[in-house]
Amino acid sequence: MAASPELPSNFQIKSFDASTTTMKKNELKISNLYLHHAYREPSPTHLTILSPKGRSAFGATVANNWTIHDGPDPSKDAIVARAQGLHMQSGDWHNSFTIAFEIDGLKDSTLQVMGLGVDKGTNQWSIVGGTGQLTFAQGFINKKLHKVINTGNVIELDIYAIFQTKYTFTRDGPKGGNAGQAREPKYEPHRLESIKISHGDLIYSIEYSHIDQYGTKHTEGRWGGTEVTNLLTLGPYGKETSESPFSLPEKKGGSVVGFFARTGAAVDALGVIVRE
């Protein structure tokens, strides 16, 4: 295989460790939606804004506000979104429009769509972007003619897209006593690498290494209870007393990526930072 040509210095392609990013990937699948391509009276949902003279329609430009329904009957089935934009005759109809959702859960979120044909032509459109809950969306829409009705055509749509959302970081704790000095990580942890615990009758110190959002490794401490990572349970540590034992995090799910504490001569209280 031939080597790829070297890019100019101002072009950068960089792979990254997905576990250190501030974004997580999500999948969107919507099947059995129906676009009403209404181009006949009494209520067409598009308007020709440029109509070249002559027999050829080349260059014709049409603004559209097509309705998208949760069933095949546009007179009865609810509108869930609108396809708002333009389509232009350039050998085939080239579409560039925004799907603006109107249902709870996706309201104020959009998908940006491009592709050829409406009821004819290719059987897919591309999803090239998104906003709101669907920011950075990429994917495709499978489309096919469902039926012809008096006002135009009904196009069946199946939508598939990948989009990104930010991870949320929550804190659990600190659990333990009220004494000691507050200890916080100097850098925001995104992945836990290693933990060192010095313990006997008490938890004397804790030290840990983590990766930040930029992929840089940091060590926090030397600055305890039971520590739980997303892979295994550590401990118990310390001497059993009449005090109530505890484990962290209390809520299941997510990944422990860092710690905060209160310490003096020993670890007096310990909390965890969880990525969800």
Automatic annotation (TrEMBL):
Highest taxon above the source species? Eukaryota
Locations listed in the record: Secreted, Extracellular space, Apoplast
User: Per its UniProt record, what InterPro entries does this chain match?
Assistant: Dirigent (IPR004265), Jacalin-like_lectin_dom (IPR001229), Jacalin-like_lectin_dom_sf (IPR036404)
MF-aspect GO terms: carbohydrate binding
Q: Which Gene3D superfamilies match?
A: Jacalin-like lectin domain
One Gene Ontology cellular component: apoplast
Q: Name one Pfam family in it.
A: Dirigent
Domain Jacalin-type lectin span(s) in chain numbering:
122-276
- Keywords assigned: Apoplast, Lectin, Secreted
| Entry keyword annotation includes ATP-binding | no
Q: Whom does it interact with, and what assembly results? A: Homodimer.
Give the family, as the similarity comment puts it: Belongs to the plant dirigent protein family.
Function noted in UniProt: Dirigent proteins impart stereoselectivity on the phenoxy radical-coupling reaction, yielding optically active lignans from two molecules of coniferyl alcohol in the biosynthesis of lignans, flavonolignans, and alkaloids and thus plays a central role in plant secondary metabolism.
Protein name (record): Dirigent protein
Question: Lineage of the native species?
Answer: Eukaryota, Viridiplantae, Streptophyta, Embryophyta, Tracheophyta
